[in-house]
C-alpha cells in the first residue's frame, strides 16, 4: 500500500508514524497480524536459522520479508548435508531451506541457498525445534589445487590441432577455478612412455594429473590405466553412470589424483568429467561410491558432435538455404540497401540466385524491413518468403524465422546474408556437402588464410540451438561453442568475405565489375546509381 509519506509492504510493522500516514490518506481500516508471546518475527527467524546452517566460506545477507539469502564467500564447490537439510525442512511448515544442487560449481557472491519463513513469524516451539536441528549443513569447499599437469598421448594421424584445442578447452575449464595448466607433456600412446611422463610430472610438483588418450580407454588393461599402475599408482574406478562422461578413469599416485579423461572432456560442454574435476580441485575426495551414486541426474545434454549419439538421426542429405533479407541497412540511409542496383539487378537478387543455382531446396528468404520491396526485387524467382515481424529486435529473430520455416526432411541449412553478392553457388553446395552427422561435422564455414567468412552450413542437430538465439547476435558464438564440430572449407577469392554495407562499398564493387566487363558503360551505370539515390 502506497500513501503519501509511507509505503507499506506485506509484513511491514505498523507503528504510530504508519498509522498517521494512513489516517492522513483517509484509510481507516487495515488488516494486521498480532504476534503471540514467544513468536519470533520472520526476519529475525530467517536470519538466525541462515546463520546457524551456514558453514565455512558461506555468508548470509540481511533478512527481508522473511528471507535470508546465503552466498558463497569464495569460488568453489558447494557441499551440503542432505539429511540435515531434510530434517530442518520437516520440523514445521513455517521454516524452509533451499540450496543449489550438491557439488555445484559456485562463484564468489553467488547465492547458494535461501532460508524462507512462510508466515509472518515462527512459533516458539517450532523455533526451538529448528534451533536444535540446525547444523552447518551448507558450506563451500574453495578451489585449492594450483598445479595441474596435462599429458596427451599421440598416435599417427592424430592432428596437432586436436591437441591444441584440447589444451585450450582444458585451460578454459580450469580458469574459473583459479587454476592454470602448470605442466604439459606429449608422449606416444605407449604404456612405458606414458608411465615415465606421469612419474615425471608428479616429481615436478603436479597436484593433479589429467591424461588425454589418443585412443579411448577400453578397459583396465588398456594403455592409460596400465601406465598409471606402472608408475606406482592405483586405479580406483573406471567408468561412471554419467553420459557424456562414461569412460572416465579415476586413479591416484600417492596423494596425487590422476584422471584418465573421456573423449567428451575435449568438448567445452559440461559433462561427467567436470563433476569429478571440480571436486578434486577443491580438495574433496571422489570415491567409488561417489561415482556410482551419480546415475540419478547423470543423463546430461547430448553433445551433438559425438560420432555415436544416443539417439541416432537418419540423415536425408537434403539441404535447404536461408537468405537473411530483413535488415534495415542503417549504414546506407539514402537507399534500401538490399534492393539497390548493382549491375542492372538488385543487390539481394545476386545472393538469392547463387542459392537457387545450388542444389539447396527450398530457398527461404526472410523479410522484415521494406518487405514488399524485397519481394519485388525477387519477382519471378522460385523462393519461399517468410516474414519476420520482430526484425527490429536483431539478427537472431531472422535466423529463428528462417530455420523454423524449413521442412522436416531438410537435415542441413546453408545460411546466406542478403548483402553478400559475390557468393557462388558452388560454395553453397560445398558447404552443405561438408557436413556429416555420423562423423560429428555439424558446422561448415568457408576459410581463407585463417579467416572465416559466410555463408555457414548448419546440421539439423544444431537447429535447436539456432532457434534458442536471442537479441541482435548471429550464430558466431555457437560456432565457438561447438568448435569440435566445425569443418573448415578452403575458398579462394573475396566472395565469402565481401559484404556491402555502405554506398561507397556498393559503388566500388560496381566499378570493379565494370572494369572486368568491357561491354558495360561505366559512366551510365554510376549515373543510374546516383539517379536511384535522388
Mean pLDDT: 90
Indicate the percent of residues in helices.
Answer: 25-40%
Report the total helices: 17
Beta-strand fraction estimate: 15-25%
Number of strands: 27
Shape: flat
Radius of gyration: 31 Å
Low-confidence parts lasting 5 or more residues at pLDDT below 50?
Answer: 308-312, 518-526, 530-534
Q: What's the main sheet like?
A: 8 strands, mixed
Alpha-carbon distance between the two ends? 60 Å
Derived from helix and strand composition plus strand pairing, the structural class reads alpha/beta
Question: What does this 3D model show about the protein?
Answer:
The protein is 31% helix and 23% strand. It is an alpha/beta fold. The strands form 7 sheets. Strands 18, 21, 22, 23, 24, 25, 26 and 27 form an 8-stranded mixed β-sheet that branches. Strand 1 (2-3) and strand 2 form a beta hairpin. Helix 6 (191-203) packs across helix 7 and helix 16 (503-515) packs antiparallel against helix 17. The radius of gyration is 31 Å and the shape is flat. The relative contact order is 0.07.
Provide a compact summary of the structure.
With 534 residues, the chain is of the alpha/beta class. The protein is built from 17 helices and 27 strands.
